[in-house]
Amino acid sequence: MAFFEWDPGFSVNIAEIDQQHKKLIGLINILHQGMQPGNDGMLKSAVKELTTQATVINEMVNYSQYHFSTEERYMRKYAYPDHEKHKSEHESFIREVRIFKNDFDNGKVVLSVKIMEFLKKWLSDHILGTDKRYEPFFRGKGLK
Fold first, then answer.
1. Higher pLDDT, 94 or 109
2. I want to staple 103 with a disulfide (CB 3.0 to 4.6 A). Which of 9, 73, 109, 130 is the partner?
3. What is the pTM of this model?
């Protein structure tokens, strides 16, 4: 069983955005899987684990920015009324993940259950709360 499962209730009924949300959930699952201990020798496993984590953390930062830019492009295009507030949530998340990435890259922190729970909770709450609020607006503009 995956750490973070896609649920149909997460759908905002806009195919492009749903696919991007699924990709973000997948990245969180890859990070979680990377935390699991390997059985190919402790040192080799630790090096592989850190390399995988660093790669996925970088992808998480980059893909989050890509995804947020997609949502924000639609918000600008259709003059979504809560655009600035929504964008502010995106910026806050990116700041948090960048701080974590910097600390991880500098050996100050390691991936932990606490960090994984933060990622899962933030994305879940954001989709089910903030993103779900734009669904009827965008659907009314013809996005599918």
1. 94
2. 109
3. 0.88
